[in-house]
Design goal:
Strand content: 25-35%
Largest sheet: 6 strands, mixed
Strand order of the largest sheet: 6-7-8-3-9-10
CATH class of the largest domain: Alpha Beta
Radius of gyration: 17 Å
Number of strands: 10
Number of helices: 7
Helix content: 25-40%
Order of helices and strands: EEEHEEHEHHHEHEHEE
Length: 227
Amino acid sequence: MINFKKVTKKYTHHFTALEDINLEIKPGEFVSLVGPSGAGKSTLIKMLIKEDRPTSGQVILDGVDLADVRDRDIPFLRRKIGTIFQDFRLLDSKTAFENVAFALEVSGAGEDEIAEDVPRVLAIVGLSEKHTNFPKEMSGGEKQRLAIARALIHRPKIILADEPTGNLDLVNSYDVLKLLWRINELGTTVILATHDREIVNTVGKRVISMEKGRVVRDQLEGGKYII
């Protein structure tokens, strides 16, 4: 599903964000990507959505070398991937329904498809009764669940969650985690980037630890966040 082959990313001669990353993630895995701020987690995620490009090495997604993906084809690549961020990135002027629908509209979906798919996804994340609410009328946990709904709307093969619980309290953090578990159980590959030790240890799946742009530890099933 995902392969990083000798990937290095240098922003300047003095700053290397990723150094010689060799990594394989198989379809259906739930991987926790951990490490302190500046470890390279977000840069690695940006590589997968082609928001950033390696200085050297290969990033292969679903059998495709991302270096071969033309700029005009990047939106089609990103339909395979649902991305969830710490800051939600919702459209404040749109309702919950409209936020999710917008992700379909920009890909050319018709009204019938939107009318069928959006309520289904909002139900999955427990927001059916909030479909007319604007983000400012929702709690932090509800906003993150809405962001997850938006990420799911294209039925992606991969979910990338970059510090999705960073702005949430413990209860809402575990609600988000349970949603990610459920998504993974349905066959979607999940990559969770976080520095939250408790969240990682609760997941109990594969843990990839990064420090200073390098993978320093890769523990399979039952891994723990070791500092």
